[in-house]
Structure formats: structure tokens, C-alpha cells
Design a protein that fits this description.
This protein is of the alpha/beta class and about 160 residues long. It is about 20% helix and about 30% strand. The longest helix is centred in the middle third of the chain and has 8 residues.
Length: about 160
């Protein structure tokens, strides 16, 4: 399961029920930054192992929890990278390919705009925000299904 921009405690007082329902089935939780307070990561870790990156609104407690600025990891054989802010939409896939040359999937947040796009040999995925939808019609999360090194399915799911 993929989350970003939960913005606790202003927007995330506790895990929303629709998000918790998906977390119950998660093998891993990826949080693409702007957690804002580390207890959210502890809450998510009650469901599945959590990997998080620092967002521009995250403080020292999120860094102390273990969230770096970027992460590269292997999920079931799929090379995945995470960063909070992927920069402007123009040139995004080429920029992410240069920044993370080994990744086949780059997960990011920051804009609160859900996105699933492929280009320049990389897929980029932003789950949006479950709690701070800004100008989006719904709060959203992302669900990924990875099998034998391949991203079999990526979905943006409405939770509000």
C-alpha cells in the first residue's frame, strides 16, 4: 500500500477507516513523505512494515524514526525508489530515470495529485493524499501488486 501527504495531526487525527481497511491486507506500507509526526508511522507499522521518506513538512522526529530523503529498495524483485518531491511535471520521467537509474518504479508525493505514468523507461506513481485532497475530488491511496519482479497492477483508490 502506498500513502503520501497524510499531514498529521492537522489532517490525520488517526487512521481513517477506509485506509485501515486496505492496510489490513497490506504486505508493506510505503509513505512518500509529509507524514509530519512520527507516531503516524508507528500507527501504520501496526499493520505492516513501513518504509518512508522525508517530506518538506516532516520534522526531526520523522527523520529520527528512520525516514531518509530518498530510498531505493527491492520489492519482490522490483527495483523501487521513493522521494517526496519529484519536481515539475514537465520532464518528470526523464528526471526520475536520471536520479534513480536502477529503479523501474519511482513512488513520490508532494503535489497531492494522484498520478500513474510511464515514460523514459520508468513508471512514476503518486498515490495522492488520503486526508488532504486539496483540489482533488477525493482523498486517495495507492495499491500495488508486485509479482516476481513485475508490477502487475497499480491502482489509485478513493478513500473519501
Amino acid at each position: 500500500m502506498v500513502l503520501s501527504d497524510t499531514h498529521a495531526p492537522r489532517r490525520w487525527k488517526s487512521c481513517p477507516p477506509a485506509v485501515a481497511e486496505h492496510l489490513r491486507h497490506a504486505d508493506v506500507v510505503l509513505h512518500a513523505g509529509d507524514v509530519c509526526v512520527a507516531p503516524v508511522l508507528d500507527e501504520l507499522a501496526q499493520y505492516a512494515p513501513v518504509t518512508a521518506v522525508l517530506g518538506n513538512n516532516d520534522g526531526p522526529d520523522v527523520a529520527a524514526w528512520g525516514a531518509p530523503e530518498t530510498v531505493e529498495l527491492d520489492l519482490a524483485g522490483l527495483p523501487v525508489a521513493m522521494v517526496h518531491d519529484s519536481g515539475p511535471a514537465t520532464g518528470r520521467t526523464a528526471r526520475m530515470r536520471r536520479r534513480f537509474p536502477n529503479a523501474r518504479l519511482v513512488v513520490f508525493g508532494h503535489s497531492h495529485i494522484p498520478l500513474d505514468a510511464t515514460g523514459d523507461g520508468v513508471r512514476v506513481f503518486n498515490p495522492g493524499s488520503p486526508t488532504d485532497r486539496r483540489r482533488q475530488p477525493h482523498g486517495t491511496i495507492g495499491l500495488l501488486r508486485i509479482e516476481e519482479g513485475s508490477l502487475v497492477q497499480a491502482r489509485i483508490v478513493e478513500v473519501t
